[in-house]
C-alpha cells in the first residue's frame, strides 16, 4: 500500500525523453489531489536500463513508466511481469513493491479501451469485427485490450504481413491476419477501426485506407495524437462515424499507474485534456 505521508516519486524512463507528456499529466494529478509528489523525465540510455531500474527502490521511487526504447528490454530485468505485460511483450509501468521488488505491468491496452468508452460509453467490443491496422508494439497492446474487453473478431492488417501473422499466432482466436491489399473491403460490417501505425502523424503520409465500406455506426480510433485530428479521423467525422483521438489512450493509461503509485485513482478531466492539447 502506498505511503501517503511520504513524498511520492515517479517518472518516465526513455531515450530520448524530452517529448514525453507524462510529467505534465502526473504532476497535474499530484496538484489536483493535494498529494506531495513529483513525476520526472528520466533520460536513460539503453545500456543503463537495468542499473536505472534497480536504483528505483534505493532512491525511494514508487515506480516509473517506460517508453521507447525500454518497453521490451525491461521484460528480462524486472522481478515479476504481470500476465498482461507478458502477453503484450512490453512493460509500460513499473511498480516498486514494499520489499523493493520490481513488478512490470502494461496499461496501454486498458488505456486504449478506456478512451473508446469515454468517446462512446455504449460501445461494445463484441458488437462487430474490430479492424486493427498496424502490427508494432501499439497494435499488440490494443489487440490485448480488445480481447480483454470481449472482442469476438479482430482483423489485423499490416504492410509487412508477417508481423500481423505473428500477433495472430501469439494471441490466437479471435485474432486473424489478412493481406494488406484487402484492408479496404474488410471494413464492411466493422464496429471499430483502429490506426495503430505511425501514418497520419505530422510529417508522415496519411494512412492509405478507403472508408467507403465502413458502417457509419463504427468507432474510428487513431493512436496518433499529433495532429489531434488526423486525416483518418477527419474522414471518419465527415462520413458520420465516431472519431476517437489518440490522446485518450495516453491519458487513460496513466490513471491506473498513478493509482498504483499513490493509492488514488485519478480522473481524466476536460481541464487535463486541455492542458496537454495546449502543449501538442
Ligand atoms: P510501435 O511499436 O510504436 O507501434 P513500430 O513497431 O515502428 O511502432 O510500428 C509502426 C507500424 O506502422 C507498423 O505496423 C508499420 O508497418 P510495418 O510493420 O510494415 O513496418 C506501420 N507503418 C509505418 N510506415 C507505414 C507505411 N508507410 N504504410 C503502412 N504502414 C506503415
UniProtKB/TrEMBL annotation:
- The identity of this protein, by name, is Shikimate dehydrogenase (NADP(+))
EC code(s) of this entry = 1.1.1.25
From the UniProt record, report the name of the gene that encodes this protein: aroE
Q: Which UniProt keywords are present, listed alphabetically?
A: Amino-acid biosynthesis, Aromatic amino acid biosynthesis, NADP, Oxidoreductase
- Species of provenance: Methylocystis iwaonis
**InterPro entries, per the entry:** Aminoacid_DH-like_N_sf, NAD(P)-bd_dom_sf, SDH_C, Shikimate_DH, Shikimate_DH-bd_N, Shikimate_DH_fam, Shikm_DH/Glu-tRNA_Rdtase
Ranges where the Shikimate dehydrogenase substrate binding N-terminal domain occurs: 12-94
The entry's NADP(+)-binding residues are 83, 134-138, 158-163, 223, 246
Name the chemical reaction catalysed here: shikimate + NADP(+) = 3-dehydroshikimate + NADPH + H(+)
Pathway stated in the Swiss-Prot or TrEMBL entry: Metabolic intermediate biosynthesis; chorismate biosynthesis; chorismate from D-erythrose 4-phosphate and phosphoenolpyruvate: step 4/7
Relate the protein's function as given in its record.
Involved in the biosynthesis of the chorismate, which leads to the biosynthesis of aromatic amino acids. Catalyzes the reversible NADPH linked reduction of 3-dehydroshikimate (DHSA) to yield shikimate (SA).
Similarity remark:
Belongs to the shikimate dehydrogenase family.
Its top-level enzyme class, in one word, is: oxidoreductase
Q: Does the keyword NADP apply?
A: yes
